[in-house]
Design a protein that fits this description.
The protein is mostly helical. The chain has 4 helices and 2 strands. A two-stranded antiparallel ribbon has the order 1-2.
């Protein structure tokens, strides 16, 4: 009887860390998903602030193309491909995919900022108006 209880105790100890690790991994993934969704929401909020002239860059806002895309060589070369394809697939940390449709460079620039630019700490920079 003691031997059976000892074996059961060892088995219980060997299962517990695995279960705890699975819970920890799930909690970590949930936090990462929530963080990424919050970053996208913040990117959307800041994009709206820029467009409405209520940001640190002031009231010089003109367009996403002029104030954001044209300031970054990688965007100048990549975002026209987004427009050519007409859509971008984005995978969230939880594995779900979402399709975003883009019809022009302006839409592609704004979408890039919301999905990636805000997290990358890219700040639109508008040329001074005369």
């Amino acid at each position: 009887m003691k031997k059976a209880l000892a074996i059961a105790g060892i088995l219980a100890l060997s299962i517990t860390p695995t279960a705890s690790f699975a819970n920890l991994a799930r909690q970590t993934e949930d936090r990462q998903t929530e963080t990424r969704q919050n970053e996208i929401a913040a990117g959307e909020q800041f994009a709206t602030m820029y467009e409405n002239g209520r940001s640190l860059i002031g009231t010089n806002w003109t367009t996403w193309t002029e104030c954001y895309v044209n300031n970054h060589p990688d965007l100048i070369s990549e975002l026209p491909r987004w427009v050519w394809r007409g859509e971008i697939s984005y995978t969230f940390p939880d594995g779900t995919d979402q399709i975003f449709f883009v019809g022009n460079l302006e839409q592609a620039g704004r979408l890039h900022y919301v999905l990636y630019g805000y997290v990358e700490r890219r700040i639109p920079n508008c040329p001074a108006r005369n």
